[in-house]
Amino acid sequence: MKAAALCAALACALPSLAAEKKLVILDDDLDGFAPAQVMALQAPDVQVLGLTTVSGNVWATEATAHARRMLEITGHPDVPAVPGAVYPLVNTEAATERWEALYGKLVWKGAWMKHWVENNFQADPQYHGPEVVPTLKLGNPGVVKASSELAANFMIRMVHAHPGQVTIIATGPLTNLALAQRLDPQFATLAKELVYMGGSLEPKQARDSEAARQFAREFVNTPRREFNIRFDPEAASIVMRAPWQKIVMVPVDPSTATEVTPELLTRMRAANTPISRALATRATGFPLWDELAVAVWLDPTLITESDDLMVDTNTEHGAGYGDILSWSAPYAPGQGEQRETVVRQIDVPRFEALMSQLLTRPQPQAVGASVP
User: Fold this and answer.
1) What is the DSSP letter of 109?
2) Widest Cα–Cα separation across the chain
3) How many other CB atoms sit within 10 Å of the CB of residue 280?
4) CA 221 to chain centre
5) Which of 105, 195, 214, 337 qualifies as a cystine partner to 310, CB 3.0-4.6 A?
């Protein structure tokens, strides 16, 4: 074959190859170097359209700085880091403190957390305002800049550009998605699917470790409460009632069988790469909440038990504010609730193997400052 003909053939083939990649937007309240997002960035059959940020564990401004630095370390400076909602739609810090005075203390309040209710293995929260970005452990971003576009607008633009092709994986509060749906009623319909980590049904402690016992505090007496949903319940309800083609819910329930043990962290850091060095900042003891959401999207066969349920969020400002509501289809109230695939259990050894494999793959060349 002549060179010109060969080039023409390759040119024809390249768009087809690109089209075979799975398109995804990763929406999160990043509070550090996150293996979940890195897994998607490292997956050979995935094209990450953007990292969008939202307030939750930390303020959106800080989360955007973490996203920018992550893109530098993983060698993806072309992927946009898109800032999102700073505040929940209705919920506020003052309202949360008033709620606690009536109904009891929350285990975790994210950016609003001033101190722990009781001692645990985690460091004290760094309480500060929404415009403060503390010095990042892995160095502050320099090469990758924040997008000038807002997350909700970015998501809308992407689903219109790639109708029926874009998955959104949300692993923080759902504020950005609710804003996108309210701005454009076609938003959810045009997306391929939504996968979100959030909510809780009836989790049980599955590991016999001190960390597992401490994390069980959050659900042992309040099994339907979970931080991502509780931080912005109104946004969660809007998103859960939107007409998505498919919704996969990854609640707390399957995460209780997972834990970042020292042994697992060693496997995750087996390669001599900037990603491996960055993972040195990953604390042990935590369940793998967000990583599960990315993993079951990459490989749905990891799911060993699931339910089909109609799901919504309690938005009444009483004791159950922010709790998950669920029904078998015939019993749902019919207020717009959507059918969701609710993940109950996963194959933990295969999940850990997939995560370790992706995190230790060869990576693109890092940009910006070297990892300390």
Assistant:
1) -
2) 78
3) 13
4) 25
5) 337
Burial 60-83 (b: 16+ CB within 10 A, else e): bbbbbbbbbbbbbbbbbbebbbbb
**How is 255-270 classified by DSSP, letter by letter?**
GGG----HHHHHHHT-
Sign of torsion over alpha carbons 55, 151, 230, 320:
positive
Going by C-alpha positions, the residue among 282, 221, 217, 287 that lies closest to residue 251 is 287
What does the alpha-carbon distance between residue 51 and residue 49 come to, in Å, rounded to a whole number? 7
Which structure tokens are listed for 188? 């959810």
Is residue 257 within 8 A of residue 206, CB to CB? The reply is yes
Tens digits of per-residue pLDDT, 160-178? 999 999 999 999 999 999 9
How far, in Å, CA of 325 to CA of 310, rounded?
Answer: 8
Q: How does residue 288 score in pLDDT terms, banded at 50, 70 and 90?
A: very high
Helix 60-73 to helix 35-42 angle (10° resolution) is 40
| Strand, helix or coil for residue 156 | helix
Going through 293-346 in order, the beta strands assigned E by DSSP cover 303-313, 324-327, 338-346
pTM over the 0.85 mark: yes
Q: In what order do the strands lie in the sheet with 338-346?
A: 81-82, 46-53, 22-28, 166-170, 193-197, 247-250, 338-346, 303-313, 324-327
DSSP letter (8 states) at residue 31: -
Token readout for 5 is 């003909």
